[in-house]
Amino acid sequence: MTEQVLEHMTKAQQHLVNQSMNYMDVLYVDDARLIQSYENVGQLDSRGSAHYALGLLLRNGEGDVHRAEHVIRSVLSMQYDAPDEIYHGTFRTRPDVSDPPRGNYNWKEFAPGTAYFLERTFEKVSAKFLDALWNEESILNESAERKQVKKLFQSAMDQVLPPVWTSYDPNWREFIASAFAVILAEFSHRLPQQLVEQMEYAMKLAVAASMDRFKSDVIPMNTNIELMHIFLTHFYGHRFNHADWIAHSDEQADRMLNEFMVHDSFAEFNSTTYYGVDLTVLGMWRTYGSTAQFIEIGRMVEAGLWNNIALFYNANLENLSGPFARAYDMEMTAHSSVGMFIYLLLGEEYIHLADINCEVEHGPLIALVGGEAPLEVIPYLKEHQGNRLVQKQFIELCERNEPTSNRNLCTATAWIGEKRMIGAMSGSRNTNGQMFPATIHWRSDHGDRYDLRLTRREVGEGWNTHLRGITFEADLTEDSLTIEVRLETPDEIEIYFEIRGPFIEKDNIQDHQWRLPGLLCAVTAEAPAPSVLNYPQYTEIIYRYVPGVSSNTMRFKLNFQ
Asked: Could you tell me if 98 and 155 are in contact, meaning their C-beta atoms sit under 8 angstroms apart?
């Protein structure tokens, strides 16, 4: 225990707790004893509710402990207790979701990479099935119909084999178990003993299942989940005197440190989205670790992560430059808690970086663990430290690829200028739509902030999907960005630049020149003629790939003034 309660916290810590709790209080639904999702108001949220329970116990106001007990029981009621199923020990994301299918997938009997081989097998069977229908012109003769049949085929598969991320989220084990670890460490004395025992029973299920997942490698763990997994096996291993879990956590902590030190980087590289989670969990290692060795490893990795942040951070633009191995948003304050840590480190002048976003529920936890950054990092967070070209290598994780070939050496290059940052990625073979290989951030003369990113999507679908057969290679100078896109896929694909910021006029987007507020971009494109879609908050410049019609290579050169 840290013996730290709200009244003994710093002003910044108190702000994070109060801001988070004021927001979650509004989201609380008394009948369900859960909070609603920040992003999907109206949908109840088990993970957010676990963090709310922690905040209630920390705040300890009138009725807070009683409400926390109800919330914890509601979250516990959503855990899957199905020892033979791949989703055993995780939690429903919300109470109204249907149970995943049971009894059809003996996943423990298969080798690592089962999920990859199943997905690839589905793709091959689906392609042959569709080709057969395509040849019967009376049955299927339009691309829209082909896509609909593919979705029906996928739906049939999903009713037999539990589809990860659709019917269940395996990461809910780690997220909820982490919040409960802090509750048990800090506030179990405020809860009825019976409830504590129920929590401990649930955590034994969750951690045992997390161990099974890790050992099987059926669903690989990205960096933030792996950090949680190592922490949980350490924390609950010591709490329950479980020697195997302790030995596993010690071994994996050493391995994590050694892998990090090869390039001083994580697989989830340069991600405002996931760096916030990483910093939180490493703070848990530091605060709730049971051995000096475990705590020291956490501190070493935390310091290395802050050095990476400083390298790609621009204090003038208050953002990481990109490219991003995995992220949701370009804007650091949009889908990230990194700003909360910077606020804790630098004080009230930076309170705006901790504004409410979808990570607001983590405020109490972040307030408890705090942030530790090396002294040499602080100047980079406060002021722009001069224009610089930076380059960093990292070993990515392609979680949907074959385990023997899902790690690639990538190079992230960035130009960090006073008013403009550019990012370029080479070497990645990731299928994940959260990878953004070419990025720009800049500020107009009026002070408005803008960003641009390159991404892709199947026609009619969104960007946040896994797509095979599309690779990007990008490079840069201080005033240019060069990109090559290779497409080896049977699907129609849109390669597009998304530009966010105010007052972007569609008429200013021409084939060979983009006149953007604060940035003039000369464009050389070896690609199909683009179309432009203009929305209130962003603009898309879209290059459509049609298999058998378009070249399977697109090249772009952007020169900036």
From this structure: no
C-alpha distances out from residue 247 to 261, 283, 287, Å: 21, 21, 20
Read off φ and ψ for residue 466, nearest 5 degrees: -95, 125
Residue 403, H or E segment: none
CA count, 13 A, side-chain hemisphere, 370: 15
| pLDDT value for 146 | 66
Q: How far apart are CA 450 and CA 470, in angstroms?
A: 27
Beta bridge pairs of residue 414: 390, 423
C-alpha to C-alpha distance for 440 and 403, rounded to whole angstroms: 33
Reported pTM = 0.94
CA distance 494 to 460: 9
380, burial (CB in 10 Å: exposed 0-12, middle 13-18, buried 19+): buried
- Quote the CA–CA distance of 264 and 287 in Å, as a whole number: 23
Strand-pairing partners, residue 520, are 515
**Using an 8 Å Cβ cutoff, are 525 and 554 in contact?**
yes
E-assigned strand segments in 61-144: none
How far apart are alpha carbons 466 and 150 in whole angstroms? 16
Which helix (H) or strand (E) is 498 found in, with range?
A: strand 493-500
Q: Report the sign of the C-alpha dihedral through residues 458, 463, 465, 469, in that order.
A: positive
Q: At what angle do helices 171-187 and 272-288 cross, to 10 degrees?
A: 40
Q: What one-character-per-residue DSSP string does 123-149 give?
A: HHHHHHHHHHHHHSTTT--SHHHHHHH
What rounded mean pLDDT belongs to the chain? 93
Read off the tokens for 318. 């208050």
pLDDT category at 148 given cuts 50, 70, 90 is confident
Using left for φ > 0, alpha for ψ between -120 and 50, and beta otherwise, residue 89 falls in left
